[in-house]
Amino acid sequence: MSILVNKDTKVIVQGFTGKEGTFHAEQCIEYGTQIVGGVTPGKGGTEHLGKPVFNTVIDAVNTTGATVSMIFVPPAFVADAIMESVDAGIELIVTITEGTPVKDMMYAKAYADKKGVNTIGPNCPGIITAEECKIGIMPGFIFKKGKVGLISKSGTLTYEASNQVVNAGYGISTAVGIGGDPIIGMSYNQLIALFEADPDTEAIVMIGEIGGNLEIEAAKFIKENVTKPVIAFIAGQTAPKGKRMGHAGAIISGGKGTAAEKMAALSDAGVYVVKSPADIGAKVIEALSK
Amino acid sequence: MNIHEHQAKEIFKRYGVPTPQGSVAFKPQTAIRAAQQIGGDLEVWVVKAQIHAGGRGKAGGVKLAKSPEEVGKLAEEMLGMRLVTHQTGPEGKVCHSVYIEEGANIEKEYYLGIVLDRATEMPVMMASTEGGVEIEEVAEKTPEKIIMVGIDPAIGFQSFHGRDLAFGLGLPKDQVNKFIKFAKLLYEVYMDYDAEMIEINPLIRTAEKSFIALDAKMGFDNNALYRQPEIQAMRDITEEEPTEVEAGQYNLSYIKLDGNVGCMVNGAGLAMATMDIIKHEGGEPANFLDVGGGANAETVAKGFEIILRDENVKAIFVNIFGGIVRCDRVANGILEATKLTNVTVPVIVRLDGTNAAEAKKILDNSGIANIISAENLADGAKKAVKASEGA
After folding, report:
1. Is B77 a catalytic residue?
2. What pTM, to 2 d.p., does this model score?
3. Average of pLDDT values for A154-173?
4. Tally of CB atoms within 10 A around B183
5. Interface contact flag, B276 A275, Cβ < 8 Å
6. Reported ipTM
7. B243 in contact with chain A, both atoms CB, cutoff 8 A
8. pLDDT at position B294, please?
9. How far apart are alpha carbons A96 and A99 in whole angstroms?
C-alpha cells in the first residue's frame, strides 16, 4: 500500500514535449510510472517518447483514462494548466514548475479546492511511491521500499532524509515534496491523515522550514488525530529574520514563522523533533523500536 | 522586490489614492526648488530619506522644514547619511535621495496595510487606530487593536469589507464611505501590481476630514516581475546587498551571515539545514548559498569566489546531494574550481547520492592538500567546524 499513487496510476504530462518535460517524463517511464501520454497545445496527434500527444487535457483524459497530471509548463502558464486539469476531471495535479506568481496560485488553488481536486506543489520535487510510481524529478534509486511516509517542503533535503531512513534499515512507502512557495497544494495535515490511514506506513517523517504556519497547524492535527510516530526536522533554525532563504515562502516575517516556535509546537504534540538534520535516521530507529 | 516611498506614491496617484504633493530630489538644490514648486498653504515641508526600510523617523530620516532654504539644509544633511533603523540591520542603509512633501494638517493617524495571508491563501487587509508606531509592536502588545479582513479574490473588495474595517476603527458615520473608497483603491493597486505587501503607516485623517497616505511602502512578488515591467524599472540595486545581486546573476542564491564556516549546498532546504548543523556542531555559518540544480565547475568556482570575499571565512563546507546531478561530475567541478579560484582555506566536501563513491575517490586522489572529503552530513559538519577553529 501507499498513498495517492501506485503502480496502476495513469499519468499525463502537461508541457510534455518541452526540454524539462521530456527529460523527466523519460526518467519517470524508466522508473516504471505509467505515463500514458502528454499535452502540448498544437502538437496533438503526434507521438513523443512513444506516447500520444494531445492538444487538450480533456482529450488526453478521454482517450487514456489518466487520473493524474504532472505539470512542467513555464511559470506564466501554470495556473491555466492547473485549472484545465481540474476541469478535465484529473484527480491529482502535481506541479513541478518553479517561479509561479502567487496571485496565479491564489486563483488556481481556490478553483481546485472548490472542485475537490488534490494538488501538489508548485515548486516541488513531486511524489513517489517507492519502486512503483515516480511523478516528479527526484532520483528514484534513493527511495527504497519500506514503511516510512515522508513529507517535505524541500527537494534535496527530501533525498537526504530518505537516504538516512534507508541507511537506518528502513524504507519509504510514499514521499511527497509539497514545495516551498507561499501558496501550495496538499499540506502536512492532509498527507499525515492519509499516512495515518495507510496500513503499510508505520512512521511519518516531516521536514519543514521557516515561514508560514503549516507546521504549527500540523502539530495541532497530530496531537488530536495521529497515533503513528512522527519524526520532524525544521530547517532554518539559524536563518536571519526578514530574509528570504531561497524558497519564496521561507521567510520569517514580523517575527512569525520561526523554526523555534514550530519545533516547540511539534514537541508539544508528541512529535520526535530532531535539532540536527543528521539525526533523522537515528530518530526513526528510536521511534520504531519503541 | 521593494520600491521607494516616492515610487509607491506615484502608483497610488495613478489609482486616485490620495497622497500629499511631493517631489523626489537627489541634490540639495533640487530639493529647494521642489519645495518652492510644491508650495502649500501650511508653509511647512517634510524632508524624507528614501531608503527601503521602515522606522526612518526615529533614525533622523524624516524632518520638518519651515522654509525652502531649510529644506535644502536638511536635504544636504540627509543625502549620503547612513540610517540605522529596526529594519535595516546594524549596518544601516545609505540615503541616496530625499522626498520633499507638503506638510499635512494631521487630525488622527491610522495604520492600513495589505499582505497575503498564507493560512487562508487570500489577501488580508489590516487596519489599526495605532498609526505612526511600529505595527509589529502593536501586534505583540495590543493585538486587539488590529482589525483584519480577508478578501476572497473571487469576489474582490466589496463595500462590506470596508465597513468591517471602518466601523472597527470607530470612524464617525460621515467618514465611513470615504474610507471604503480609499481601501478599495488600495486593494486594486495590490492586485493589479502583483504586490506582496502594501503598508501605509501612517494613514492620516486631516483636519479637513480627508484620508491621505502620508507614507507608502510596497513589496512585490518576484515571481510576477516578468509581467510588471514598470515595477522592474523601479528596482534600485543600490538598496540591495551587492554580493547577493552578483550571485543572483549566476543563478546562485547567497545571503551573508556573521559566522566563519562558508557553506555551498544544492537546494534551499538542504542549504538551511547545513547552516543549522554547523551551528549544532558548535560553529557559526558564514552564509547561505544554494547553487541550485546545476553544480558545475563554473558555478562552484563563482560560489567559492563569493564565499571567500568574506574575510571571516576560515573553512568551506560543500554539501551536495546529487540526484539528477552526478556526484563525480560535481567532484571534478570542485577540483577545477579550486584551481580557477585561489582557495587556501580548508574545503570539506560531502557528496552523496548518484555516483557518490566514484566522487569520493576523485577527491581523495586529487593530491590537493586542503580538500578534505567527508563520509556524511554529520561528519562533514564536524570536520568543517574543526577546520574553522584552526585545528
Report:
1. no
2. 0.93
3. 95
4. 26
5. yes
6. 0.92
7. no
8. 65
9. 10
